[in-house]
Amino acid sequence: MPKAHHILGAMQILITRFHLLLLAVTVAITGVAFFRVPADYAFAAHWSGSAADWLWPRDALFVAPLLQVMLLVKFLVIGRLLTKNQYAKSQHILDPALTLIMLVVGACQLGLLLTGIGSDLDFIRLTGFVLGAALLVLAVVLFEAERHTYAGLRMPWPISSERAWRWVHRVTGLAFGLAGGGLLALAWLDAGAGALVLGFVAALYGPTTIAGLTTALFRRT
């Protein structure tokens, strides 16, 4: 047992018990939804006036747990591919990033359950407001961040100069600000579950992609 514990301790694993708990909760929500939501029910993902012009079948409930499993596998592979130095520098970012994505996916699944059973609470829209506000706070933090050892973006490659570091964080901060503002607008306008889910994907992956590309661009500046 001590030897096995030592081997597991040496493995670079980004997945925690909390992430597995989030998956279990989403699976439980899915099970309840399949018992409570009629088989012929269709989720209205977008409205055109008073008529729904984008419908999701009840089988759309399978998407959330499958997506979470894919995320866990992806982050498991990422953890194993990183060097020890890269893992040490990026764990404090990748861990909460996975947690946030898992929470958003689980919240969307809960929103579908509540919609399917006839609840008046639009939980997906509520998630849009909360996530949008959180991204705006993150945008301000990144935009105003001062450079020191324990703060700012962490990438496998260094940001060489003070000027480059400042530009990277301001561009990334603006990207998160636009993402947060866009989500708040979609939630306020009640654009529908479909538009919000697409907005979640864009808001979570767009700014992080911009951050990676910007740091790569300014690494030698």
What does it look like?
The protein has 221 residues and is mainly alpha-helical. It has 2 domains: 1-120, no CATH class; 122-221, no CATH class. The protein has 7 helices and 2 strands. It has helices at residues 2-10, 17-36, 63-81, 84-116, 123-144, 162-189, 193-218, and strands spanning 42-48, 51-57.
- N-end to C-end Cα span: 50 Å
Largest sheet: 2 strands, antiparallel
Count, helices? 7
The poorly predicted ranges are: 1-10
Give the overall form: globular
Give the oligomeric state.
Answer: single chain
Overall strand count? 2
Number of domains: 2
**What structural class results from the helix and strand content?**
mainly alpha
Task: State the order of secondary-structure elements, H for helix, E for strand.
Answer: HHEEHHHHH
Mean pLDDT across the residues is: 85
What is this entry, summarized?
The chain is mainly alpha-helical. The chain has 2 domains: 1-120, no CATH class; 122-221, no CATH class.
Properties at a glance:
single chain, 221 residues, mainly alpha, 2 domains, two-stranded antiparallel ribbon, 7 helices, disordered N terminus
Secondary-structure map:
Elements: H1 2-10, H2 17-36, E1 42-48, E2 51-57, H3 63-81, H4 84-116, H5 123-144, H6 162-189, H7 193-218
Antiparallel strand pairs: 1-2
